[in-house]
Amino acid sequence: xxxxxxxxxxxxxxxxxxxxxxxxxxxxxxxxxxxxxxxxxxxxxxxxxxxxxxxxxxxxxxxxxxxxxxxxxxxxxxxxxxxxxxxxxxxxxxxxxxxxxxxxxxxxxxxxxxxxxxxxxxxxxxxxxxxxxxxxxxxxxxxxxxxxxxxxxxxxxxxxxxxxxxxxxxxxxxxxxxxxxxxxxxxxxxxxxxxxxxxxxxxxxxxxxxxxxxxxxxxxxxxxxxxxxxxxxxxxxxxxxxxxxxxxxxxxxxxxxxxxxxxxxxxxxxxxxxxxxxxxxxxxxxxxxxxxxxx
Length: 295
Hints:
This protein is an all-alpha fold and about 300 residues long. Helix content is about 75%, strand content about 0%.
């Protein structure tokens, strides 16, 4: 049986990657009040190097797989990716985990729009429709707090950071699509975490702490969960087509919901529950274009 004949295994890997990603976000949320943002990014990136290096070594892509003909391309992708990580973790610190993850679902929608600008792809009704539904969901979730003046400054900044992270992630993914034509996927991931580590070090003058005990355990966990999540996601797309995996993207929302309710004891607002179907419809509409193209 070939790799292409194992879609069920690919689906299982995609679901597992969602669990691992949720583990990373939970660790970040748990330490966000005690550890500075830059330090969280540094630990997440540094300890993600361990599974990534193991993966490259097992695939016999280390160190030869790190050679590149496009250093500037890696620099641009890594810069946008690092910026997205900083914004994402700031959003997670200020919002419920499920809210931050839901807004992250805008990334594939924004990526399809960014492709029109950066890759000269066509602007289709599917992309516009996905964008309209996706942002309508965010407006439904956020507007009562903006309009009614009931939101704290922390939450408003959190919403803005989450949207910024989705936009930066979309641009980074467009660059990954371009780099994948000539570069090793492992090298793309490794240069990204290296750039995030270097960027995080510039925040040392803003104040770092010496983590210990439970905080250190969570910081290491964030890195390991993040690194393994990236690897498992990569393998999922090897064993199953992207269109087959698309519906299972939304299962990843279940784990942050459970984390908010069971771990952080945070209530789910009515606005959030109303926003979920709109954002997911937007993502489904954007994905429908790819599904039609493959039929």
